[in-house]
Specification:
By secondary structure, the protein is an alpha/beta fold. The protein has one domain: Vaccinia Virus protein VP39 (Rossmann fold). Strand 4, helix 6 and strand 5 form a beta-alpha-beta unit. The longest helix is centred in the last third of the chain and has 21 residues. It is globular and about 45 Å long. Bound molecules: S-adenosylmethionine (SAM). The site of S-adenosylmethionine has 18 residues, from helix 4.
Length: 221
């Protein structure tokens, strides 16, 4: 499914969020505590936008790796890395079985990715494993607003408008019908914080953005 939407994925993100997703990515990077020269991993990197935001934080002296299990997403990410002159190391990998040694990174991020993973706890314990003590794991996700008027907006926008936009822009209605149903299945922000804590992260906190449609979580190793 992700392979089939890779080519138009960035355009859909911009259309769905009116371009705001770049701002949310920068807020996520700010929560990593990364410094110039740091080492970061972005899991479920897709077409690489969060990894590029990490690269902007650590600079050429740092190191950013992005992993994803869709080759077509990785092809788009690699093309962007070349044209934008941001040498991020994009490679194939499974978020629930990371191939990196313990304590390898200063921070790990995941953007709009864990919602698609069956065993979320396993994904977070893998992310925590590869971060050094004191480093951070940061998660950016779509979430269901609990209160009106955002709850009503969510119903109209995600359940109705996005599948139609997906079929026009991406020519893939089913992938963009999957999106609202995956958000509905996904644990609300306090439950996700509890899952992160159970996975071994400390001081887990979250902030809701964009009228509580976006959740930004972070925790310390
Ligand atoms: C909605 S996209 C998010 C892409 C990107 N992180 C972003 O912020 O736009 C979800 C991505 O997660 C990837 N993915 C889902 N499950 C995965 C897993 N277990 N391991 C690695 N990648 C996975 C998909 O291939 C897809 O590229």
């Amino acid at each position: 499914m992700f392979g089939s939407i890779a080519r138009r994925y960035d355009l859909m993100n911009t259309a769905m969020t009116a371009g705001r997703h770049h701002h949310w990515r920068r807020l996520a990077v700010a929560r990593t505590g990364l410094q110039t020269g740091g080492r970061a991993l972005d899991v479920c990197c897709g077409t690489g936008d969060l990894a590029f935001a990490l690269y902007d934080a650590v600079g050429p002296a740092g190191e950013v790796t992005g992993i994803d299990f869709s080759q077509r997403m990785l092809e788009v990410a690699n093309r962007k890395a070349r044209t934008r002159d941001r040498p991020v190391n994009f490679r194939w990998g499974d978020a629930t079985a990371l191939e990196f040694e313990d304590d390898r990174f200063d921070a790990v991020t995941v953007g709009f990715g864990v919602r698609n993973i069956k065993d979320i706890g396993k994904a977070f314990s893998e992310m925590a494993r590869v971060v050094r003590p004191g480093g951070r794991v940061v998660c950016l996700e779509i979430t269901r607003p609990a209160r009106q008027p955002f709850k009503g907006f969510f119903g109209i926008w995600f359940d109705r408008a996005i599948p139609v936009a997906g079929s026009i822009i991406s020519r893939n209605r089913s992938a963009y019908s999957y999106l609202p149903s995956s958000v509905r299945r996904f644990p609300p922000a306090p439950e996700l914080a509890a899952i992160m804590t159970d996975a071994g992260l400390g001081d887990v906190s979250f902030r809701l953005l964009a009228g509580s449609i976006i959740a930004l979580h972070w925790g310390k190793v």
